[in-house]
């Protein structure tokens, strides 16, 4: 099995997967004016109220009218986003409001709609806290990338050009980050899914899985570089990938089957988190096999020196 031979095909497939996500990130930015993703209250601030009705569930228009009655200059909560959860429950997202206002709204719901209302969840985050969370999330990803680069450089210090392994791992990790962000942008655009703290948790978990699988392949490359000294570098790397292929696929499939079961039977509250994990782990498996190690070969052969020459020869 010659995986390295078709490396540019695999790079092209990655590009085809990433580009639509980038397009939808742009569409989200144009639509919300707040960023490439539909951000939840953890990042942009606001309030989330989830309630359950004992009787008939009111319409989105009735909830919007109720919120408008309680909207003030200090708490401009008019025009909330209303989403149905179950047959008798709804989720309402608005700008930040206090517990006191929430209590008044719930009381008014019971009076106006003639039904007992049970508060399932209430979260309120100020815009300033949301901004701090966004900055902290960006720093967390940058710190993770820097720590990975330093660790791999140190772990592979006995191999010639050790820094290449860390750089290739970071490129593969960025591939997975872009795939996850693109998937979130597409799901947010069509389904209204919002990136929240759980999404950040899923993203950091994907980074960990991606780098772990890449290191497994790189470790076999390191071992074989000492064993097969006279073998061509490209063949040695391909042999290393094939040796770890069964382990990588089997390990990741075990995780993915579990996540797929959670998507089907785990409930609405964790479905978003699990879907993002499923997409990210699949991407991580792909990038560690078809992107990370082939990048080492491209770098070793300095193939960028021949890219344009090939085009000129073709002309």
Describe the structure.
- This protein has 315 residues and is α+β, with helices and mostly antiparallel strands.
- The chain folds into two domains: 4-36 and 129-311, Multidrug efflux transporter AcrB transmembrane fold (Up-down Bundle), CATH 1.20.1640; 46-125, Reverse transcriptase/Diguanylate cyclase domain (Alpha-Beta Plaits, 2-Layer Sandwich).
- Helices cover 71% and strands 9% of the residues.
- It is built from ten helices and four strands, in the order H-H-E-H-E-E-H-E-H-H-H-H-H-H.
- It has helices spanning 7-32, 41-44, 60-70, 99-113, 127-155, 162-191, 197-227, 233-265, 268-301, 304-314; strands spanning 46-53, 81-84, 89-94, 117-125.
- Strands 2-3-1-4 form a four-stranded antiparallel beta sheet.
- A hairpin with a 4-residue loop joins strand 2 and strand 3.
- Helix 6 packs antiparallel against helix 7 (197-227).
- The longest helix has 34 residues, at 268-301.
- The radius of gyration is 25 Å and the shape is elongated.
- The mean pLDDT is 86.
What is the N-to-C order of secondary-structure elements (H for helix, E for strand)?
A: HHEHEEHEHHHHHH
Strand runs, count:
4
> Class of the largest domain in CATH?
Mainly Alpha
User: Beta fraction of the residues?
Assistant: 5-15%
Mean pLDDT: 86
Largest sheet, order of strands side by side?
2-3-1-4
Shape descriptor reads: elongated
Rg over CA atoms = 25 Å
The CATH architecture of the largest domain comes to Up-down Bundle
Q: Fraction of residues in helices?
A: over 70%
